[in-house]
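debug: dumping io for the single-chain case to check the tokenizer round-trip. Nothing else runs in this session.
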Amino acid sequence: MNSAPTRAPRLLALAALACAAGSALAQQPAAYPAKPIQLIAQQPPGSGSDAMTRVWADCAARELGQPVVVQNKPGANGILAVNYLKVQPADGYNLLSIGMSQMTITPYVYKQPPYDPLRDFDGVAVLGTSPLVLAVPAGQGIGSLAELQKLARSTPGGINFGSPGKGSPAHLLTSALVDKLGVPGTHVPFVGEGAGLTALMGQQIHAMTLVIGTAAAQVKAGKLVPLALFGAQRSPLLPDVPTIAEAMPAASDLARPAWIAVVAKAGTPPELLNRLNAVTEKCRGGDAQYKSRLEAMNVTLTATAPGDARAWAARDAAVWRPLIDKLGLATE
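debug: decoded output
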């Protein structure tokens, strides 16, 4: 007859335990990713960087089972995109595709760097590399660095060389090479590679460093002559073009191909970075569409770990920062 009062506290205790268990389950995070991922692109739609960004986004979405939505935030050579990432949560749902220029050059052409690549980002993966090529207009009678050097010495004021803009890899590579050749040269910045290419083919400038895809098309058309490839090995796209080390051993340290990476905001949980890196490796190793699309853009795919983006940035910045200081490129 006294069983009912005895059972009541037990029932209450069981109910409390059930509520606590339900609350704990409710607080557990959903498996990642549980919603679409935002991938910020620092170049406008239609650019080479944007195209590579979208190839990764498509493959990552297939592997993750969630949309990877590309948001273009172009402007100020990547600074606007970086600033946008910095105000987003470090939760794995906000990523940024970023180039070698933004990771190793852009911050250091300002006396007060707008961001710190080694402090503000956590790496996801380096997607691949693409070499740059020094080219001259056809019809100048220039077919080697030695002949370009001779032209510079015989031309009042030396050679004029173009680039897509001040502080770009093309600007720094060509400036460093001119310095190593020991000849005078004047940098002529253009708004984008296309405008500089037009000036180069029109012989308004003597030389320009171009991405290999741009250069190869015009070499095959007979409008440009390639002199050296800024890479560690020759490219199948231009197999007869020597590497910079072959063309000028003293300039072997300029074998600095362009590269693109995916990064997250600093503080993103390591397990999410590892998950995204594993997806990238699966795309690289087993997704034929991913591989063929990037290789068609003359991108050499590379195996990668999450820490590589920072490591590559530190490695290349060790070359670029002294050169920026030597050329006096840093501005307010």
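debug: round-trip ok. The CA atoms of residues 107 and 116 lie 7 Å apart.
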